[in-house]
Specification:
The protein has two domains: about 350 residues, Glycosidases (TIM Barrel, Alpha-Beta Barrel); about 70 residues, Golgi alpha-mannosidase II (Immunoglobulin-like, Sandwich), CATH 2.60.40. β21 and β22 form a beta hairpin. It is globular. α3 packs parallel to α5, α9 packs parallel to α10 and α13 runs parallel beside α15. The strands form seven sheets. The protein has an eight-stranded parallel barrel. Helices cover about 30% and strands about 20% of the residues. It is built from 16 helices and 24 strands. The protein is α/β, with parallel strands linked by helices and about 550 residues long.
């Protein structure tokens, strides 16, 4: 009998835990809380890997490697930093081996610290860590219910330097430079000067570049790499065109380590069919990983792809207009696109923002979604560049329908204007951990993000549900997704608060305010609670 009572108690406990902390079964990508970080700028967990390939030239301000690595991210997973933020997916900038040299385009020396200047897709850059580090990171993240999203670059290689020769002409074009005034002038061209553009429109078979062959032989892995390529092309039937080599190399991180998704870079700069194929290759790799690792399956979700179609916004619904051609990327490999509208829409009232997004996501984009952000690594005009609206930013981002993307340091008001830095370097400063430790104001803001983030993570209704306003003044709304239901109040007066919950929660229902931690019981059709805060996050106990 004692064993039965213990088991019953355990089931009740785990059921309550599932409601308030989120579970594998609860997770929906449509309502995910994603944390985006620049690996090199987040945390230095291994100082022995800070310099590689002779990268010793002095770089311009924040344009060189600063030491951040996978071990640093692992340390924050171990320390529950992401768990405490309610983060259920981490997006890392590209980890593959970067060009060894530096560029100098008039702003001083720049190294590939950001990860978008690929030299070899089959290797991790030692500045970021090892494949053993990546395996450990994925496994530790998964153990805490956190998915791992890497960043895929198929559009281009890294720039050409004295240490980094250009890929063969059968692989890349080095001109013309894009003018962005038509579909062709956006896809069949180089994004900027000295950024070789992969011939992704081509299906012509090509050989592995000699530079890679020589590199692999020197590293003692030539036979293994060629055998793996032979097996891939035999299994898939794809031609040995440049794009399929790169797809295979990127999918290896899925098949070998169980990576859950890719954020796809520069989507609109290739023909759209590339991404439909990439999606299929990644899904097959994901399926192979799950078959080979039945004990490590996190959930039954499909492989996740979110696309960066620069300039796309939710107001455009499903199509992006090049001027001379419209493309539906949702029909070409994506269930989610990054939403460039959000930083402007965040200036709207809560209700205008929330109801507008809910309407689109549950009609024109039904079954699809967008990833909302207010700050990023390459958007020079963020919502709150001076960090004067930090609480409003957090509330709007984390309570909006769609996927939320926290950019590292949003939750700590990391400065976005850095003395001596130029351009996007301002957005890519080192994480301000000292403020987290010593600044009470930073700790208070972080706590606000944590409360909202945990609430979002526990309730797929927040991001994936249907929004309905209950009261305009004071402002209350509900979100409902299947059996999950929440009730939220914003801009409320401090002290006693009450709201009519007829048709939402029955009399006798115990509600918990996830912000204050207080409970209340519904009586006579009303929920009443007294707190010192201006917002209430009601969830059913």
């Amino acid at each position: 009998m004692k064993k039965l009572l213990w088991l019953t108690g355990f089931m009740v406990l785990t059921s309550c835990n599932a409601l308030h902390t989120g579970t594998k079964q609860d997770f929906r990508w449509e309502g995910a809380n994603v944390y985006f970080l620049l690996t090199d700028r987040f945390e230095n967990g291994d100082k022995t890997n800070d310099t590689n390939f002779g990268r010793t030239e002095k770089a311009a301000v924040l344009r060189g490697f600063e030491g951040g690595d996978l071990r640093g991210v692992i340390s924050k997973i171990d320390g529950n930093y992401f768990t405490d933020l309610g983060v259920n997916a981490i997006w890392l900038t590209p980890l593959v081996e970067q060009i060894h040299g530096a560029t100098d385009e008039g702003t001083g020396k720049t190294y590939g610290f950001h990860g978008y200047w690929t030299k070899d897709w089959t290797a991790l850059d030692p500045n970021f860590g090892t494949k053993a580090d990546l395996r450990e990171l994925v496994e530790k993240a998964h153990a805490k219910g956190i998915r791992v999203v890497l960043d895929a670059v198929i559009n281009h290689t890294g720039p050409v330097t004295e240490d980094d020769p250009v890929y063969p002409s059968s692989w890349v074009r080095t001109s013309p430079q894009c003018t962005y005034d038509s579909y062709e002038h956006t896809t069949a061209c180089t994004l900027v000067k000295n950024l070789p553009d992969v011939l992704t429109e081509s299906n012509a078979p090509v050989d592995v570049p000699e530079m890679l062959i020589n590199k692999w032989k020197k590293e003692g892995r030539y036979e293994a790499e060629m055998k793996s390529l032979d097996e891939f092309f035999a299994r898939t039937g794809y031609p040995r065109a440049p794009k399929y080599y790169i797809m295979k190399w990127l999918a290896d991180y899925v098949q070998d380590y169980g990576v859950d998704g890719y954020r796809v870079d520069t989507v609109k700069h290739t023909n759209e069919d590339v991404w439909k194929d990439f999606r299929q290759v990644c899904q097959e790799a994901f399926d192979i990983y799950k078959r080979n690792n039945p004990g490590k399956i996190l959930d039954n979700n499909l492989f996740f792809n979110v696309g960066e179609v620069y300039g796309y916004g939710i107001s455009q619904k499903q199509t992006y207009d090049f001027g001379d051609k419209k493309v539906n990327y949702y029909e070409n490999g994506f269930k989610s696109l990054i939403n460039f509208d959000f930083k402007g829409d965040a200036n709207k009232t809560y209700e205008e923002l929330f109801s507008g997004y809910s309407k689109i996501l549950n009609s024109d984009l039904n079954g699809k979604t967008v990833m909302n952000y207010l700050t990023s690594h390459d958007d020079g005009s963020p919502f709150d560049k001076s960090r004067t609206r930090t609480y409003e930013a957090a509330t709007k981002l984390l309570l909006s329908p769609g996927i939320s993307q926290i950019y590292y340091g949003d939750e700590t008001a990391r400065p976005l204007i850095i003395p001596g830095a130029e351009g996007d370097a301002n957005l890519r400063s080192n994480m301000n951990w000292s403020d987290v430790k010593y600044n009470p104001g930073t700790a208070k803001l972080l706590l606000h993000y944590q409360k909202l983030g945990k609430f979002r993570a526990a309730h797929p209704a927040v991001g994936a549900g249907v929004h309905q306003m209950i009261s305009e003044k004071p402002y209350w709304f509900t979100r409902i997704y299947k059996e999950d239901k929440v009730l939220v109040g914003l801009d409320l007066a401090s002290g006693e608060k009450n709201v009519n919950v007829n048709g939402i929660f029955e009399n006798g229902t115990v509600l918990r305010d996830a912000y204050s931690g207080k409970n209340t019981k519904v009586r006579n059709g009303y929920a009443e609670i007294t707190t010192d805060f201006s917002l209430v996050l009601f969830e059913r106990l």
